Amino acid sequence: MELLPHITIDHYLYFSTVLFCLGVAGIMYRRNAIIMFMCVELMLNAVNVALVAFSKMYGQTDAQVFVFFIMVVAAAEVAVGLAILMMLYRNMHTTDTDVLDKLKF
Amino acid sequence: MEKLVTLIPLFPLAGFLCIIFFGKTLSKSLIGGIASGAILLSFIASILVFTTQIHGAQPTVVKAFDWIHAGGLDIDISFLVDPLSSIYLLFITGVGFLIHMYSTGYMHEDEGFNRFMAYLNLFVFFMLILVLGSSFVTMFIGWEGVGVCSFMLIGFWYKDMKNNDAAKKAFVINRIGDLGLILGMCLIFSNAGSLNFSELFIEGSSGLSMPRDIATTAAILLFIGAMGKSAQIPLHTWLPDAMAGPTPVSALIHAATMVTAGIYMVARCNGLFASSAAASEIVAWTGMLTALMGATIALTQNDIKKVLAYSTVSQLGLMFLALGLGAYSTAVFHVITHAFFKALLFLGSGSVIHGMGGEQDIRRMGGLKSHMRITHLTFLIGTIAISGIFPFAGFFSKDQIVAVAFEENKVFFILSLIVSACTAFYMFRLYFLTFHGKFRGTHEQEHHLHESPKSMTIPLVVLAVLSIVGGFIGLPHAIGHDMGMHWHWLDHYLADTLLMPTSLMHSGTEIALMLVATIVAVGAIYFAWNIYKKKGQLALEDKAITSSTHRLLAAKYFIDELYTAVIQKPLDALSHFFNSVFEHKIIDGLIQSIQWSVTSTGDLLRKAHTGKLYMYILITVFGLILLLTQL
User: Fold this and answer.
1) A102 found inside a domain
2) Comparing C-alpha atoms, which of B335, B299, B351 is closest to residue B531?
3) pLDDT (tens digit, 9 = 90+) per residue, B187-239?
4) Cβ-defined contact of B617 to A27 (cutoff 8 Å)
5) pLDDT tens digits for range A47-95
6) Distance CA A93, CA B369 (A)
């Protein structure tokens, strides 16, 4: 914030909110599982931005530690999630979530 | 001496374990030897213990090990040696040894020979624990143990369902009695604070510091236990059915030893029973009625073992009569002589059954006199002994009971004379029908007829001798005193342990009573001889019975049918009712309605579960927004 003094915390938060909403909207309106997956990542990163911004604002590093946690967990999630998607596509020949409703009672 | 006492029950236990674990690798004769030898060793040890008691040793408690220590309850496994237990030891191991020896011959062809000998040894072990136990709890271990052995041996031939039913019946009826015994024990403990016989009874004989009504209740509860074990009305029905077991079992368990455990227990608690006139009255009347009922039923039975079984019931009743009248040593006297002659009669009947190839119906026998000489002679001795003819064993003990009844209550006197007459009649009826007249069985059976092997006849002879001389341990005053012999030896021997009637009967009265008893017995024998020997009349076939009294007796007063109608049928109906209404309608209905409400709610909510992811997320997001704005 010292480098770019005209960009205040508000801007970061607006950006984070927009990013988050994009993620939510993407999940709601897209049916391709890969796209939905990417939207989830978007939401996670929106939160990361907010966390880093707050961290800087209060001068505390706790939040940044959380950001690393989230990134690590997201990486692990991608590894597992993409593997699942691979197997789904191999077996079902689609990643359309409307078709993939076998677990519904 | 102390080690010797602990060894007495250990020998049969060792024999049991040995046969159970190594039986398969040993030969039959060796197993027979182990089983009989174990009892013989116990018998020798018992003789040694008995001699110390005769020479006036004080009653001692031999502690084997600590068992339970909880709060105020201290229970050791320890053995009480006093005149009462030592004389019981003697005849249990003595008669037990003879019956073991007999069994090696009787059961020789049976495939379950090992099992049989093992169970017999186990039974003797528990019986010795019962008699030696120095507290109610130790006695109770033996009490239940003999019950289990009895159950296993009645149902020994388990492939026939009838035998299993008889075993179950014995077990279940004994449970009813045992409940009384347990309650009695609890009552005594809560009031006297101890269950050790030496603390309860010996110190100051009637040293029970209990209120009178509690003493009466405790005595009656204990007596209910005795009723179960010793087959008294109304818990007597198991004993005749118990004859389903092999004959040596009937002789050992259901005639000589186990069924007299009830008498032992009442005699052991004589201080308690003596302090309650009401309880003693109940004991006496129960005994008297049982004696009368058993004797009358035995008149019409046609199964050789059933006759003896009802005879046992009846004799046990006489013993309880003596107990109820306060003549505790007289009851013990009759227990001992009864053990001799009833074991003899059962073993004799076993020998007959063995010779007849399994036939038990006396209507199919007859004329066995010439085929089985030793069996015939010993059976005759047993028959005379139980009928009470001078100078056989049964005469003295039964006469003593009759004399006590005469002193105490004339009603009991008359009734016990009737029982004696019936006893003499049915025993001689049995004897004449079995051994005299023409043979009535099939040709095959006649061909098969043979005298039993030595291992069976030797015990018969020994028991026959005991049945002749066994009564001399309790010679009446009138005879013994005038002849310069020990009179009432047994009474004097037991005087430290058991309370004695104080008055001594006048010699003249005593002799007159003996004459009356003898005349009654001889009259009954003549009657039996006249019908079954002279006129050669036979027992009727079941269908040919016309007289209603006869039918009533042959059907054993319909007591089993009564129990079926009064207890079993209503219980069945109640169970059926609860099954059809309570179980099926109420409980099942409740559970099914819960299940139905859950499924129907689920059905309703399932509609929200579309499977479209965007729907879920939409709902989540709007829900979140709603939540956040509301906050």
Assistant:
1) no
2) B299
3) 888 887 778 887 777 554 445 567 778 888 888 998 999 998 888 888 888 88
4) yes
5) 999 999 999 889 888 889 999 999 999 999 999 999 999 998 998 888 8
6) 101
User: Could you tell me the two tokens for A31?
Assistant: 């049916």
Mean pLDDT of chain A: 88
Q: Per the CB < 8 Å rule, is B614 touching A24?
A: no
Which residue type sits at B437? G
Among A4-8, B32-36, B109-113, name the most confident range. Answer: B32-36
B32 closest CA partner among B90, B92, B91, B102? B102
> Domain holding A61: CATH number?
1.10.287.3510
Cβ contact, residue pair B611, A27, below 8 Å:
no
What gap in Å lies between CA B88 and CA B83, rounded to an integer? 9
Locate the domains of chain B by residue range.
312-554, 560-630
Is residue A14 assigned to a domain?
Answer: yes
Q: Give the per-residue pLDDT at B204.
A: 46
Q: Does B609 touch chain A (CB under 8 A)?
A: yes
Number of domains within chain A: 1
Sign, Cα dihedral of A33, A38, A42, A47: positive
| A105 → closest Cβ in B606, B617, B621 | B606
Mean pLDDT within B354-367: 80
Cβ separation A27–B614 shorter than 8 A = yes
Residue B215 contacts residue B95 (beta carbons within 8 Å): no
Stated pTM of the model? 0.77
CA B29 – CA B41 distance, rounded (Å) = 18
Model pLDDT, residue A42? 93
Question: Is A105 part of a structural domain of the chain?
Answer: no
DSSP reduced 3-state for B357:
coil
Q: Classify burial at B166, counting beta carbons within 10 Å of its beta carbon; exposed 0-12, middle 13-18, buried 19 or more.
A: buried
Residue A62 lies in a domain: yes
DSSP β-bridge partners for residue B66: B76
Residues from chain B that touch A104, judged by Cβ atoms under 8 A, are 609-611
- Range B256-278 average pLDDT: 86
The amino acid that residue B607 corresponds to is K
